[in-house]
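Posting this for the archive.
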Amino acid sequence: MRLNEVNYSDAQPVDGYGDGFFRIGGQVHQGAVLTSTAGTASWGGLGDAEPLLALAGQIDVLFIGTGPEIAHIPAELRKALEEAGLGVETMNSPAACRTYNVLLSEGRRIAMAALPV
């Protein structure tokens, strides 16, 4: 079996997550987070659209992790993001973390906003 080292050139991968936290690039972040090539910051959750909309033009797809279970995001949030030209993929937070890491390793223009598990 051949193993290849994964390089994350522009952003930090999600190293882990647990009850109320995410570990991204070796740093622990409590609560909801937003991470992209611009860095990682606390996020106000599904009612906090402004930092997500600020990513328009910088990314192609935004993964939204809805916590431990998959859930619908508010229709007005989805509409605002799509009108800004952002592709939106909603999934539970563990799946969002895994998908984010895979596409990040491919050099894709992505971001992840996730609620804690």
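The radius of gyration is 13 Å. The first helix runs from residue 50 to 53.
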